[in-house]
Every structure is written in C-alpha cells, then in structure tokens.
Amino acid sequence: MIATMIYKLTKDATVEQLEAAGLGPNYAQRDHALFYQNSAGVPWTAAYIQAKGDPLADLYEDIAAEEKARATYQWLIDMTDDVDLQDSLKFLREREIVHALRFKESVQILIDERGKKKVY
C-alpha cells in the first residue's frame, strides 16, 4: 500500500520536480517505477525477516516489527498535511496495532499452555 501511495504521489511529477525532491537518481534508473528500499537507500532484502524457530522468540520479533511499523506510519502521518494520505496511513497504523495485540495474545496462550501435557 505504501508503494502505491508513493507511486500515486509521484506519477505525474516532472523530471525537474523529481530532481528537486532528491529522486533524480531513481528516475534515471527506473523512470517512475518503484524500487523497494529504506529511507537510506538500502534495497529491501529477505534478510529483514527474522525467524528463530522458537514460537515465543518469533512472536516477540513479530511484535517488535509491528511496533516499528506503527511508529513509522505515525511519523509519516505527522509529515504530511494531505488528509487522504493521512487517512490511508492511519488505517495502516491501526492495522499494525491490531496485529501487535493479536501476537501478544498468542504469546500469552503459549506461556499459559507450555507447561501442560498435551495428548492427542
């Protein structure tokens, strides 16, 4: 969704506007196409996905990722005065909050159940 928002915000920009916004190198390589990278220009990689194989450790990692995403959406909301963009970002922020809550509930279930013997 973020990539689509960025595309919509930049698709009609002129080369001069893109250069003024610091997007000249991206335009020179990709025209108006998006390239997934962080704010420092580091390309996205699957190495960003963390998994330990332990359910509790993995859920805590998921909670941290959701909270980081929530904070990022809040910073983006604070950076724009475009109400439509803010509404979309608020939806995404709230979704991260709900995800974090569900992961926290899952952690509690695992903690409550880990000492019980299961017979199936």
From TrEMBL:
Protein residues bound to Mn(2+) 2: 66
Residues that, per the record, bind Mn(2+) 1: 99
UniProt keyword terms in alphabetical order: Manganese, Metal-binding
Cofactor requirements of the protein: Mn(2+)
Alphabetized GO MF terms: metal ion binding
Segments forming a coiled coil: none
Keyword tRNA processing among UniProt keywords: no
Protein name in the entry: Catalase
Cofactor, free-text remark: Binds 2 manganese ions per subunit.
Family affiliation: Belongs to the manganese catalase family.
Organism: Paenibacillus albidus
